[in-house]
Amino acid sequence: MVSILSVVNLHKRFLLGGVVVDALNGVSLQADEGAFVGIVGRSGSGKSTFLNLIGGLDKPTGGSIMVGDKDLALMSSEEKAEFRRRKVGFVFQSFNLIPSLTAIENVMLPLVFGGAPRGERKRRAEELLSSIGLAGRLGHRPGELSGGEQQRVAICRALAPDPPIILADEPTGNLDTRTAGDIMAIFREMNAKSGKTIFMVTHDMRTARETCTKVVELCDGRVVETGEGGCGKS
Amino acid sequence: MRLSDTIAFALTNLSRQKLRSGLTAFGVVIGAGAIVLLISLGIGLERAILKQFEVNELLNMVTVLPAKVSFSLSSILSQSVGELNLKTLDDGVVEKLRAVDGVKTAYPDIASWADCRIDDQKSYSIVWGLPPEGISEGLLSYIVAGGFWKEESDFAVVPTNLLKRFKIDDPASALGKTLIFSNFTGFRPPGMRLRARPQDGESGGEPQKTHSCTIVGVFDSKQLGAFGDRILVPATLAKVVRTIGIPAMAGLSDPDVEGSYGSITVRVADPSQVDTVRKRIEDLGYGTFTSNDIAGTIGTIFLIIQAVLGCIGGVGMIVAFFGIVNTMVMAILERTREIGVLKSVGARDFDIWGIFVAEAGMIAFVGSIIGLGCAWGIGELLEIAARAYIVSHGGPADTNLFAITWHLALGVVGFSVIVGVLAGLYPAARAARLEPVTALRHD
Ligand SMILES: Nc1ncnc2c1ncn2[C@@H]1O[C@H](COP(=O)(O)OP(=O)(O)O)[C@@H](O)[C@H]1O
Ligand SMILES: [Mg+2]
Q1: Which of B231, B257, B290 is the last residue of a domain?
Q2: DSSP for residue B133
Q3: 3-state secondary structure of B266
Q4: Which of A163, A223, B41, B371 has the most CB atoms less than 10 A away?
Q5: DSSP 8-state symbol, B188
Q6: Which chain B residue has its CA at the smallest distance from A105's CA?
Q7: What sign has the CA pseudo-torsion A214, A220, A221, A223?
Q8: How many CA atoms within 13 Å lie on the side-chain side of B390?
Q9: pTM for the whole thing?
Q10: What distance in Å separates the CA atoms of residue B404 and residue B39, rounded to the nearest whole number?
């Protein structure tokens, strides 16, 4: 197995008006290519912070994040932008689509920043949206789409540059149970058929156990050994 | 990110907030419009005035003066007559000038201001003496009624605009009328006071002198531009009138020195040789000037006027500048989360910066184009009104007071875009610096 991500002793400390919050307090984790990693834990345990750090959206205050043979902590802001564009795709709980852009324009966005030719962007975005059942929604704006449809557009956007890693922060958190099931199915397929390595934050332990190849539970910024029964109960 | 994508993205964003973008652009419309309107007025006026000096008849003319005088603006403002080393211009000098290489002919200018009367109406004018060789082909072609005198006697050729002042509409009806010159009581040209003639008694006491002549011809004053407002008489008559009126030509010569002239007109054989010939004359120690000098001075004056008018319009641009800054800061506050999203899908800081700078520049670009259109429209309306006024006062119908040149149009659009881009720099830099996570958590 080829290691795709290796996190060692990761720290993230926030200073908010003199109050120190250690969102991550020494997290170490290793994931292989093609893994489906579920990250669970109570609200405020540091899940989003962890995802943001490995996605290069934020800087750690300690520790290292190795992606392949590169240390994220050492990258310039320019290099991190390229890393986000080529290596990872984000899927957020609140979709985070650009409201003024149509579905297809939202999907094309990472390719626009990558400087891909116009025709190629369009073809790629159409292909992705069609494969996910949104062929009839290309010209719709986010406001004209249901939650499930918006999240599928967001997934297409994450997949557009064909990154090896997908980072999803409670992607079903804003959806009803049935739609959530559909979205989970898409992630499973991404992992199984396209071989994407997925890190998914979820508060649903059962789904995590069913779907993920590996489940990591965070508690107050630390990894709790899975199967230990969670930290809140002790 | 490609430039075309940046611009397309910026356009999408602007069209999202049409009202706000429009109101911000309106500031630029006013600023750019005011600049265009004011400067085009400056250009139009300058052209209208310069046209008065672009007369074929003047192109081969060099006026020789008793001293070297600079006609540049700064020296006009600082020169004092006392510093000048005056030479006497007499018949000997005329002969000397005739001998200069390239000179076709030379003759003294005998010109004076005098009151003049036709029937019982009074006005005043410059009375200009012309020797036979001064009656050029050009002058002959400007005649609209009668013609020049056949013998040097008490005859006069008058300009159409003088007849207008005498309410004579048909030039032909002026022919044969008696024109009476008398002591000048009209306005005093600047500097004339200093050279008041000794025999002019103190106020009111001067003896009334008159001299009459017959109008034999009328010329079209417009054809001579700024030089059209003068009565042409034979040189012999001009000498007589000079004892009645006061000498014209800036008082550079002493009219009481017998046989001396205020200036001498030199006609150059080849108009393209004017500058060479004037150089030869200046080497003899005389001053010269050509219609180009006046044109140059007027050009400088109008450059200053245009700069001042431009600055007035520029104040509007300063207001527009802060309008754009304000709009962009607001837009960035509103779109902070969106900036985070763009960064999460791989936008570089530079891409974000470019988008906001492009938006600011685009507001200014659109505003300046509309401003240009408005200025053109308002200029046309004012033009129509001005023309009606000018025509009703006997002026030409082909004036163009508001001249929007390509330079002006492109210059203002370019300037506006620069102002817009500058206004966008600070907000765009703020947007580019945003931390992705901070931006994403914003709502
Ligand atoms: N930008 C921030 N500034 C200050 N505190 C933060 C910031 N981001 C997260 N935190 C704090 O860090 C802790 C972990 O947050 P988060 O990673 O969002 O938890 P989770 O996603 O597991 O709910 C929380 O206590 C939160 O208040
Ligand atoms: Mg979270």
Answers
A1: B290
A2: G
A3: strand
A4: B371
A5: P
A6: B9
A7: negative
A8: 14
A9: 0.75
A10: 8
Q: Are B344 and A57 in contact (CB under 8 A)?
A: yes
* Cβ burial A177-208 (10 Å sphere, 16+ → b, else e): eebbeebbebbeebbeeeebbbbbbbbbeebb
Q: Which residues of chain A lie closer than 8 angstroms to B10, CB-CB?
A: none
Q: Both B99 and B131 in a single domain?
A: yes
| Distance separating alpha carbons of residues A164 and A156, to the nearest angstrom | 14
pLDDT tens readout for residues A157-216: 999 999 999 999 999 999 999 999 999 999 999 999 999 999 999 988 888 888 899 999
Helix (H/G/I), strand (E/B), else coil: B244: coil
B28 in the same domain as B123? no
Subunit contact A113:B16, Cβ cutoff 8 A: no
Question: Rounded to whole angstroms, what are the CA distances from A37 to A95, B199, B283?
Answer: 20, 116, 97
> Does one domain contain both B10 and B78?
no
**Rounded Cα gap, residues A206 and B155, in angstroms:** 121
Q: What tokens appear for B253 in the block?
A: 């010569």
A94-142 pLDDT, tens digit each:
999 999 999 999 999 999 999 899 999 999 999 999 999 999 999 999 9
Let me know: does B258 contact B110? Beta carbons within 8 Å: no
Question: Residue B155 has what pLDDT?
Answer: 93
Residues B170, B238 within the same domain: yes
Q: Max Cα separation, chain A? A: 57
B6 pLDDT band (50/70/90 cuts)? Answer: very high
Chain A residues whose CB is inside 8 A of the B348 CB are 77-78, 81-82, 113
Domains held by chain B: number: 2
Provide, as residue numbers in chain B, all residues whose Cβ is less than 8 Å from the Cβ of A113: 1, 342, 345-348, 351
Pick from B5, B16, B436: which is nearest to A100 by CB?
B16
B1 to A90: CB separation less than 8 angstroms, yes or no: no
Angle between the B349-392 and A77-86 helix axes, to the nearest 10 degrees?
A: 100
Per-position b or e across B69-98, b if 16+ CB within 10 A of its CB: bebebeeeeeeeeeeeeebebbeebbebbe
What ipTM goes with this model?
A: 0.94
What pLDDT does B257 receive? 58
Whether residues B381 and B311 share a domain: the answer is: yes
A14 ligand 1 Cβ < 6 A: yes
Q: Which of B63-77, B84-98, B386-400 has the highest mean pLDDT?
A: B84-98
Interface probe for A, chosen from B338, B344, B441 (most Cβ of A below 10 Å), is: B344
> Domain check: are B221 and B73 in the same one?
yes
Rounded to the nearest angstrom, the distance between the alpha carbon of B329 and the centre of ligand 1 is 27
Q: Based on the fold, state whether residues B145 and B238 are members of the same structural domain.
A: yes
Return the residue whose CA atom lies nearest to atom 11 of ligand 1: A23
Q: How far is B41 from chain A, CA to nearest CA, in Å?
A: 43
CB-ligand 1 contact for A49 (6 Å cutoff): yes
A13 CA from centroid of ligand 2 (Å): 16
CA-based max dimension of chain B: 101
B198 pLDDT higher than 70 = no
The residue count of chain A comes to: 234
Residues in B whose CB is inside 8 Å of some CB of A read: 1-2, 5, 9, 12-13, 16, 337-338, 340-349, 351, 435-437, 440
Q: Confidence band (pLDDT; 50, 70, 90) for B250?
A: very low
Rg (CA), chain A: 18
Sign of the dihedral through C-alpha A86, A88, A89, A92: negative
Give how far B8 is from chain A: nearest CA, Å.
Answer: 11
The residue segments making up the domain with residue B103 are: 61-290
